[in-house]
Amino acid sequence: MWHGKAHRSACGMAGGLLTLLLVACAGNSPTRPNPAPVTNAIVTTDLPQGHERVILNVGNLVDNRVRQQDDFDPDNDPLFQILVAEFAGQRGRLDVAAENYAAAARQLQDLEVAKRATRIAVFSRDNAAALESAKIWVAQAPEDIEARQILAAMHIRSGEVDAAITQLETVLNTATDSANRHLGTIANLLSREEDKLTALKVMERLIAKRDNDPDAQLAYALLAIRAEEVERANKAMEAVLDSNIGNLNIAMAYVGLLQKNSKTHVAFNWLDRAIKKSPDDAGLRLIYARLLADSNRYEEARLQFALLAAKTPDNSDVIYALGLLNLQANRIDEAGDNFSALLKLEARDYDANFYLGQIAESRQEHASAMELYGKVNGGSNHFQAQVRIALILSLQNEISPARAQLHSIDVQTEEQKFQLVRAEGEILAQHDRFEDAMVVYDRALEDSYDMELLYTRAMLAEKLDRFDVLEADLQTIIEREPDNAQALNALGYTLADRTDRYEEAYEFVRRALVLNPEDFYTLDSMGWVLYRLGRLTEAVEYLTKAREIKDDPEVAAHLGEVLWVMGDKQAARDIWDSALKDTPDDRRLLDVIQRLAP
Fold first, then answer.
1. Rounded to whole angstroms, how far apart are CA atoms 292 and 299?
2. Rounded CA gap, 474 and 469, in Å?
3. Which one in 11, 414, 424, 514 has a CA-CA gap of 20 to 30 Å to 143?
4. Higher pLDDT pick, 175 / 236
5. Do residues 401 and 391 make contact, with C-beta atoms less than 8 angstroms apart?
6. How many other C-beta atoms lie within 10 A of the C-beta of residue 405?
7. Cβ(238)–Cβ(277) under 8 Å?
8. Structure pTM?
């Protein structure tokens, strides 16, 4: 079904035409009746005896010469062509509709028909018909801006650049009071053309005489950005910056284009200068702050959002972003103030209560945290809030209520279903109910695959000395995801630590290290595998590098053991003693010391 005023008008006409046609054809005589006298507004038709007279009001649509033709020719009858076009459109045959409306417009040279014909042809992507009908439209209404803009677009699609420029120049010169608005409209029009470079050339020629017009530069910048022509956009935005004319939407689009093309540094440079010129422009500063956050420059982003919050204390989006950045910076008290301010503003209540719940939980204020999580009755954090309630119940040794809480949560996706399974298994495992946790995992994985859940079951199987389950689960992950570095590393380390299949272990860890060459855990695993293979000097290199990345007690235990076996017992003791100062109760450190240096 088509929509719009033109459709209602044409359909009404088509309905009258259909009535006339049906009645005219309903008589017993095959002879076409002679046309009745024609007035400017009414067509009357003499009908065979016994048939009711039908009156069709067609106004000035068709001139008298066309109406009085005695011989019906469907290829040259505009009324018939319009009727065919309307029925074709109703049935989704836009090609037939465009062809017939263009033919009718060609014969009638009528404004309304030409408008309808042009719009249908544009919609059906019949550029030739649209060009022809748009020319008629412009000829009948030379002051119509829309007609000239459409005709210009059709000229561009036909490769007729000069003709397009002529039409657009007329648009710009017709109404000087609204020239700026027309520039923006023309930029929007050209940005929709598939041939972006031609559209840019057209705009360049249009603004050539308007070099000092900031609105012209702004319109060109918009087109260059939408065409993703970075260099042209840079030049145009420099001109916009020099003219000190602000448009936040274009600035945002420009920054987005630069980010997409890995030119974030150019975006920062432009925004720095723009903000210096307009330090009180909150919109520009907001774009700058978001770009800092997107670039992981969180502390700088936090400072910018703090400035914005001071100037716009009722802007809930700014307060919310500042709260998240304060949380990320571990500025818990300030984050709490931000989220409390959101509640006072009655904005983002669900988000505010969720993060206030997290803050309360971090302070071990479990009752308050559960109350706050309970208020998160919707929003993107609703699911996680309900899970957190269960985990807090578990911390309070309320295992049955914790599991009941998890079972009461409605899940919307498969991922949420597996998250609940993992949470229930972790609760049971934390309370040393390993077998019960395994049952939960086994049930969930009977007919499903979930990498994280398989990996979690593999780690639980290690605690239960179920090496067969561990290896099978990790092998399943690797078969499905050959580049899963986490599974490759876990299986390689376990093979080296729990079996004598050292060559297999080395290959798995080697593959993981190729994928993550700076990963602390994988470096430790490689050091341990090389130790098992007797390649002690290489083992020390990998373990030392791992320890430089993170001073972890397990790495200290491994490195100390290798040095001890190599005969450098003092170096081994120094490493163990240093690690014990930070983690005096670490079981892995204590075990290796007890085994090698009791």
1. 9
2. 9
3. 11
4. 236
5. no
6. 24
7. no
8. 0.65
Q: Tokens 């559209």 label which residue? A: 199
The two structure tokens encoding residue 90: 């109703």
Q: For the chain, which domains are there?
A: 1-141 (no CATH), 148-278 (1.25.40.10)
Q: Is 567 left (phi over 0), alpha (psi -120 to 50) or beta?
A: left
What φ, ψ does residue 524 adopt, rounded to 5°?
A: -60, -45
Which of 115-124, 278-287, 390-399 has the highest average model confidence (pLDDT)?
390-399
Show Cβ contacts of residue 508 under 8 Å, excluding neighbours closer than 6 positions: 478, 488, 489, 491, 492, 495
The residue whose two tokens read 């009977």 is: 446
Residues 207 and 234: their CA atoms lie apart, in Å, by 16
Residue with tokens 């987005």: 256
DSSP 373-437: HHT--SSTTHHHHHHHHHHHHHHTT-HHHHHHHHHTPPP-SHHHHHHHHHHHHHHHHHTT-HHHH
The dihedral region occupied by 398, where left means phi > 0, alpha psi between -120 and 50, and beta the remainder, is beta
- The per-residue b/e assignment along 529-550, b for 16 or more CB within 10 angstroms, e otherwise, is bbbbeeebeebbebbbbbbeee
